[in-house]
UniProtKB/TrEMBL annotation:
<dbReference type="Pfam" id="PF12698">
    <property type="entry name" value="ABC2_membrane_3"/>
</dbReference>
<keyword id="KW-0472">Membrane</keyword>
<protein>
    <submittedName>
        <fullName>ABC transporter permease</fullName>
    </submittedName>
</protein>
<dbReference type="InterPro" id="IPR052902">
    <property type="entry name" value="ABC-2_transporter"/>
</dbReference>
<keyword id="KW-0812">Transmembrane</keyword>
<dbReference type="InterPro" id="IPR013525">
    <property type="entry name" value="ABC2_TM"/>
</dbReference>
<feature type="domain" description="ABC transmembrane type-2">
    <location>
        <begin position="20"/>
        <end position="245"/>
    </location>
</feature>
<feature type="transmembrane region" description="Helical">
    <location>
        <begin position="221"/>
        <end position="242"/>
    </location>
</feature>
<feature type="transmembrane region" description="Helical">
    <location>
        <begin position="135"/>
        <end position="158"/>
    </location>
</feature>
<feature type="transmembrane region" description="Helical">
    <location>
        <begin position="55"/>
        <end position="77"/>
    </location>
</feature>
<feature type="transmembrane region" description="Helical">
    <location>
        <begin position="98"/>
        <end position="123"/>
    </location>
</feature>
<feature type="transmembrane region" description="Helical">
    <location>
        <begin position="170"/>
        <end position="188"/>
    </location>
</feature>
<dbReference type="InterPro" id="IPR000412">
    <property type="entry name" value="ABC_2_transport"/>
</dbReference>
<feature type="transmembrane region" description="Helical">
    <location>
        <begin position="21"/>
        <end position="40"/>
    </location>
</feature>
<keyword id="KW-1133">Transmembrane helix</keyword>
<dbReference type="InterPro" id="IPR047817">
    <property type="entry name" value="ABC2_TM_bact-type"/>
</dbReference>
Length: 245
């Protein structure tokens, strides 16, 4: 436990020295949320969930995407490329401890992003969650774990930082643009919506939208199941094939 806490503190100091996590993980979602709030909140009056209401569930996933899929995978790959993981192999620190410590640091950044976006939506634009906040927070954590499992998978298997940049960028930008995080799912034609549903984050956003609008959870079983499969497969492969070097 002492070795883990020491490793966690070191990881936290190293991660927060980088400006990337501040820009892409925290500031970008808050800025985008402010833009959506300004442009969409004016037509949010009326019955049912408006585009403004639905945009909240989309924007809060951007911080998850930046920290989990991008930040986590690149850090693990960088440690492998520089031989840090290989040196840690002869220490009491296990691969699981490395992943958990780095994941917790990135998770803190994602939660800060979530809080920032939520405060902007509520206090600047009068957003009101139609569903249950406790259930929404549980769903948010579930989506976060699923996206972090993908980042862990990429970071655990790639050989070097070049490969990590390629795969993490492909996963990050494809889900950022085509999962409904930045381009609203509802405005896309049906054949493109079918293509968007290929990405795991799209199902996470569907789940969060359903919960935020008070839709019965039974209608989200498909999304819950797909995210669960994503977590099981990603973590299973990570544990089995984690690369030290």
């Amino acid at each position: 436990m002492n070795s883990f806490m020491t490793f966690f503190k070191i990881e936290a100091k190293l991660v927060w020295k980088s400006i990337d996590i501040l820009i892409f993980g925290i500031l970008f979602p808050i800025i985008l949320g402010s833009i959506f709030g300004y442009t969409l909140s004016k037509d949010s009056a009326g019955s049912g969930a408006s585009n403004f209401d639905l945009s909240y569930a989309s924007v809060i996933t951007i911080g998850i995407l930046a920290t989990g899929v991008m930040g986590l995978s690149l850090t693990l790959a960088d440690y492998r490329h520089r031989g840090i993981l290989q040196r840690l192999q002869v220490t009491p620190v296990s691969p699981l401890q490395i992943v958990i410590a780095q994941g917790l640091v990135q998770m803190i950044a994602a939660v800060i992003s979530f809080i920032g976006v939520t405060l902007v939506y509520i206090y600047a634009f009068g957003f009101e969650l139609q569903g249950s906040w406790p259930l929404f927070l549980i769903s948010y954590l579930y989506v976060l774990i699923s996206m972090f499992s993908i980042g862990t998978l990429i970071g655990s298997l790639v050989r070097d930082t070049k490969s990590a940049n390629l795969w993490s960028s492909a996963a990050y930008f494809s889900m950022l643009l085509f999962s409904g995080a930045t381009i609203p799912y509802e405005i896309m034609p049906s054949f493109l919506q079918w293509g968007m549903d290929v990405f795991p984050l799209a199902h996470g956003i569907h789940l969060l939208k359903d919960v935020s609008t008070g839709t019965a959870l039974s209608n989200s079983l498909l999304h819950i199941g797909i995210l669960g499969i994503c977590i099981i497969l990603s973590m299973g492969i990570t544990i089995r094939y984690f690369r030290w070097k």
